[in-house]
Amino acid sequence: MTTYRISQLAERCGVPATTLRFYEDAGLLLAERTPSGYRVYGKDAVERLAFISSAKLLGLALEEIRELLDVREKGVCASVRERMVLLVAGRISETEGRIAELSAFSAHLAAVHADLSGSAPDGGCGPDCGCTIGPAAAGPVPVTLSRTRPVPVAEPWREAPVACTLGGPELEERTEQWRRLVGRAENREEIPDGLRLTFRAGMELAGQVAALAAAEQGCCSFFDFTLHLTPAALELTVRAPEAAAPLLADLFGATV
């Protein structure tokens, strides 16, 4: 019978070992223990991970993936497909809603752009110069852009799946980028759920921090980043749910 140690499975599937441990804690991936305490995964783990990765690409939430795995364990493909049809239909509805929001916002921007492209009044700005957009100018329906699909919590990052989509060389490069950046911090402060790093103020550094934080959220939505720039310092606050503590420590040196 084919079995995998956690490092072997991580290499075989391109999934970080920290993510595999999280999947196990979340009940998505089964593992046995050797007498010496090492994790051992069965041969079905590769296919199970492929299913989890596929479900993530569809934008399914962690609890939805867990539910699908429970249905899948019963060995009836038709039941899995039936449940997936409903979940994917929900994602389509949410996506179409976001498209409508973006279309409305694009139209609003086009109107503002056309107004700003006209002749500017003499002198300084005033209430009617067009630089300040009031509620009436935005149209009868306010435009609200949702960055992610609605999450019934005040802080969505707390409920985001603790899983990174990077693997192999990409993950190593991203880790090295963060370690180089963290090494430039002049002060570090442990806070609830994370830490705060303080750097010497500078527009170039601020741009680097912002770009790296945005890239990180693209693959790890469970991280919460806040940038605060003053003439004297740049503060980067990083928070993550408890399950992501190993990743927080690995990237930023946190002890939470």
Describe this structure as you would to a colleague.
The protein is an alpha+beta fold and 256 residues long. The protein is 47% helix and 13% strand. It has eight helices and seven strands. It has helices spanning 6-13, 17-25, 45-57, 62-72, 77-116, 168-182, 203-219, 245-252; strands spanning 3-5, 32-33, 39-42, 187-191, 194-200, 224-229, 233-239. The strands form two sheets. A four-stranded antiparallel beta sheet has the order 4-5-7-6, covered by helices on one side. A three-stranded antiparallel beta sheet has the order 1-3-2. Strand 6 (224-229) and strand 7 form a beta hairpin. Helix 4 runs antiparallel to helix 5. The radius of gyration is 23 Å and the shape is flat. The two termini are 39 Å apart.
